[in-house]
Amino acid sequence: MSKIEIKNVYKIFGNNPQSVMPMVKDGATKENVLEQTGHTVGLDNVSLNIEEGETFVCMGLSGSGKSTLIRHLNRLIDPTEGEIIVDGTNVMNCNNQELIDFRRHKMSMVFQRFGLFPHKTVIQNVGYGLEMQGKSEEERNKIAMEKIEAVGLNGFEHQYPNQLSGGMQQRVGLARALATDTDIMLMDEAFSALDPLIRSDMQKQLIDLQSELKKTIVFITHDLDESLRLGDHIGILNAGKLIQVGTPVDIIMKPADDYVKAFVKDVNRAKVIKAKIIMKAANETKNINKTNLIKVQEDQFIEEFLPQVVCTNSNCEVVDKQGNVKGYITNKELQTSLTKS
Amino acid sequence: MLKDKKNLFNLGLLGIFIWLLIISYNSSKRKPETIGELLNDFSWLSDWPKWLDLPLMPWINKGFKALNENYGFIFEAINNFLLFMLMSLKNFLVQAPWPLVIIGVVILTYFASGKKIKTTVAVGFCTFFIGFLHPRFWDKAIETTSIMLISIFLCLIIGVPIGIWMSRANRVREKILPILDLMQTIPAFVYLIPGIMLFGLGAVPAIIATFIYAVPPLVRLTDLGIRLVDTEVTEAADAFGASRKQKLWGVQVPLALPNIMQGVNQCTMMALSMVVIASMIGTRGLGDEVLLGLQQLNVGRAAEAGIAIVLLAIVLDRITQSYGETLQQRNSSVKKDLK
């Protein structure tokens, strides 16, 4: 069973959403609905499963409904129709108190513009979720300090958020989300407001933390490079519809439609595709030139061994961590994988 | 279905209008003998006819009389309570030695302004100059301030909760906004008079009138302040599982405080101007000095009292304003960093 299941979720913004539902279900476009009824379609029949321990990246341009989608998971926004099931419980059936408990113990969230409490110090901000869980101040401060250290902000715990730089503020946001130790973390364009250097720094920090913590992360972004770097699976949204869900390689190698194609056309494939994806399995390969073989780890990206291949004009032998030969890469494979369709 | 309800409502309004027309016609003493006359003689179309007169005045007067006779004890209780508070406050301040009062004001300013020396010294001098202008002004200023403080206290305990309520329910807001408009547009004299009828001459109707006059900005700014709290911050509180109460007192109210303090500041300034007007109904204080100067055509006297009022305004404004500014500095620069 998946950690999070979203089933046929519709969200329509406007005065009387129910009245528009039949029209949307009949397949009217977002523009048509807006023109004829004044209602905005936020999400249009979105269904997806998110597995435990994976990072699911939801990508789309502004207005595609990605922020709306993430807010459905903890019901900051209620869907017009559809079900949201987390750990086997239907969140839609929760009453007020159950919903509050659910938010306290199941999910935490990181916001695009940080969403820090300006009237609380860093340590109070980080401890906020714990405070809501009803933990004592002593315990709160102890856990908060651990998390502050984990994101590298020791020494700043008694500052107010406005005394910190943007990157540091988002670290506080991250620490706050980590502090409650929930299984699921929602990140709404968490790094979009940061400048590029700090952003890639934060991405790395998130990847490192995730390799230890193995949380289920739902990450929202409009940046394709970011989604390829972080995501185990990527879902692409356009105008409220989920167009394609797949691994980063799927998205690049087999774009579902023109929209996705346009999206991925400028991606540096060598940076995203791993050796094991394009190799030809060892048992399928015959009469290959085995002189000058270059040894390549199966998890290496193409860009890491490409220069060597070009210089020596030789083939690659792909090995796993134990050193067993898994397959081979020749110029032909490199050519097909790197050519833009 | 929604449309039906609206139509019914409009029909009801039309019914009330016709009913009022009939009542005004029937109750008028100067109506024509028969309705038929109206159809023969059309002169009533040129000048407003005497019989087309809504008898609102006798209704209100009768209502007030009934209110006074039947529920007078309630107003008396309110009267005694407010008077007791006012007297204790006033007597305390009047009996305290004046240097102590000035020192008290200075200390209050010092901490409210976040330890700004300049503001503190200026406020200290302003306070001193009120008495310095005319020794009689000192006690009068204290009397004025006491009435204001009681009114502002009423504004706070009634206005802030209403503002909070408005910010949380759009329906409540829709209903209260027109009442606030009404309170702000009805001339102050109009509610001074019923005040006198219910509470008699003196300080208590002044307190009530000041409350009515000064509370709208506080209510509005409380409502606005809470609505203006960054949605992402309130969302964060929600996302971490804050209950409505925790969100309100832990996040929204603290972040709305600069705006609420601005409301308190506005409330104070309006209360001051009202206290001066209230001197017309025999409220004592700096206002009656102005009134006396006016009656005696004594420019110097009126000017002196006027300046004293301005000084009092500066003192009160600086104290409330600078407290709001201190709060603002901490809260707002988060938004600044983002831009």
CATH superfamily of the largest domain in chain B: MetI-like
Q: What's the assembly state of these chains?
A: heterodimer
Q: How can the largest sheet of chain B be summarized?
A: none
Strand line-up of the largest beta sheet of chain A: 6-7-8-3-9-10
Major sheet summary line of chain A: 6 strands, mixed
Q: Which percent range describes the beta-strand content of chain B?
A: under 5%
Summarize the amount of helix of chain A as a percent range: 25-40%
Predict the CATH topology of the largest domain in chain A: Rossmann fold
Describe, in plain words, how this protein is organized in 3D.
The complex is a heterodimer of chains A (341) and B (339). Helices cover 40% and strands 22% of the residues of chain A. With 341 residues, chain A is an alpha/beta fold. In chain A, the strands form 3 sheets. In chain A, strands 6-7-8-3-9-10 form a 6-stranded mixed β-sheet, with helices on both faces. In chain A, strands 2-1-4-5 form a 4-stranded antiparallel β-sheet, with helices on both faces. Chain A is globular, with a radius of gyration of 23 Å. Chain B has 2 domains: 2-45, no CATH class; 66-338, MetI-like (MetI-like fold). Helices cover 84% and strands 0% of the residues of chain B. Chain B has helices at 2-27, 36-40, 56-95, 98-112, 117-133, 135-168, 170-185, 188-199, 203-228, 231-239, 244-277, 286-295, 299-338. In chain B, helix 4 (98-112) packs parallel to helix 13 (299-338) and helix 5 (117-133) packs across helix 6 (135-168). The longest helix of chain B has 40 residues, at 56-95. Chain B starts with a helix and ends with a helix. Classes of the chains: A alpha/beta (341), B mainly alpha (339).
